[in-house]
Amino acid sequence: MVRRDLTDEQIKADILNRLVNAGAFGSPHIPVDRMRGWIQNKIKKDGKKVTKCIEDLARTGLLSITARNTIYANHRRLDEIFDYIDRHIK
Fold first, then answer.
1. What average pLDDT does the segment 49-57 reach?
2. Of 2, 11, 41, 89, which sits most exposed with the smallest number of CB within 10 A?
3. Which domain holds residue 64?
4. Mean pLDDT value across residues 10-33
5. Is 24 part of a structural domain of the chain?
6. What is the C-alpha separation between 17 and 8, in angstroms, rounded?
7. What's the structural domain count of the chain?
């Protein structure tokens, strides 16, 4: 697998895309460590960049982080999530 330099926006879009494809809206959650492992295999940087992107998405309200360190997409903002994915994934 070829590792690439991805922008923060592309990493965020990939995170959201994986959550949408996994159906992680509301109650089904995905552990942050698993998401970091999936994505850091695609990029040249380590998992710190992925964690920073997850925290940025949580600040914007597109995803939520639970006390057990799991994440899920905000089902009330699905239109914004799909627009973000479409804009940044080619």
1. 90
2. 2
3. 8-88
4. 86
5. yes
6. 14
7. 1
Cβ partners under 8 Å of residue 60, min gap 6: none
CATH of the domain at 56: 1.10.10.10
Contacts of 87 (CB under 8 A, 6+ apart): 9, 13
How many Å apart are CA 39 and CA 26, to the nearest integer?
A: 22
DSSP-derived letter for residue 3 is -
Indicate whether 73 belongs to any domain.
yes
Q: Structure tokens of 60?
A: 């914007």
Tokens read off for 73: 């997409």
Strands of the sheet containing 63-65, edge to edge, are: 30-31, 70-73, 63-65
Is pTM beyond 0.90 here? no
Cα dihedral sign for 37, 18, 89, 85?
A: negative
Does pLDDT of 45 surpass 70? no
Please report whether residue 1 resides in a domain. Answer: no
